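Take our chain:
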Amino acid sequence: QATTLPNGCLRAAGSSWAQPEAAGRAMPVAGDSKKAAAAAAAVGDERANGAFWLALWFALNVGVTLMNKAFFKWWEFKFPITLSMVHMVCSAIGSYVVLNTSGIKQQQLSLREQVPVVLFSVLFCANIVVGNSSLRYVNVSLVQVVRSIIPGITMVLSMFILGKRYVRAYYYIIGLVVVGVALASYGEVEFHLLGFTLTLTVCFLSSLKSVMANKFLVGRLRFHPFELLLRMSTLASVQMALMALLLEYDGVRQWLAQHDEAGTLAESADVGMHHGHFALMILANGIMAFFLNYSNFQTTKKTSALTVTVAGNVKHMLTIVVSVLMFQNPISALNAVGTVITLLGAVWYSSFDYRTKHGGGGGGGGGGGGG
């Protein structure tokens, strides 16, 4: 095979007709043209690859959020811990397969190093459970709007935990976002205090998780992202299984009893779905949750930071629009104005943050985003 030949032999085979035209100047080499064509093809393949992962991440991001809400609202499967446990089991299995097929070796941790990992898994678990629980009570559109304050919370936590500093413009932008969130929440027709409180709580937990994850991904331990996901999802699966057994076991049994094999799809349509089909949907949702993590990793790896930033803003907007259409959320004028202000603030923040980090804006540290 030609690929096994030394480079010198390949050059000779590809340039047998090349001779100098004059002293100090050479004729074009056929091998060079082939290399240029191959390089251009490689760039095209890389762009297509990046576009594929970006589209997959985008679709899964919107799809998982809307599917979670559908479980609670359409099929009345109001068991967020059980749903989160399925996500974590699928993520643990998926990340284990990725690590073993990619040849990535896991670190051997001492007992002292395992303590912060276990504590982080508790935070990881709480963030997911509280996030899914909030969808029981509030509309997806409001959740997406409120989550826009995550960069502001991350900024505050980064200042205290990581010692970062930010230029003044960041505070103006975050202030605009907070005003938008306040207007959107105040104008929410189906406002639910517990759901809103859970949404604010998950914003704090998500920000804290992002700040602490920074220590594991770029700190002393420097976990590979999928090693960190494997460790977190495995520990979180155990924690969620125990919580589901204590808090949701009886409720899940009751739900399953209403959808036994004797019931028909027509009979169960008012209260949910036949549990055999529903189990497949739950499993598919868990697999989607893992591939959301995987596509997020691949998208970040194969595209630019600007691409991910812009896609994140579009994702927020599309999720809000689709959720309103799917679930028929009532929208007041004040809610709409607040949503628009929040989205504009989020776009302004991500644009300014990108320019700052890449030398196009003022000095200071970059903020943290929310997924």
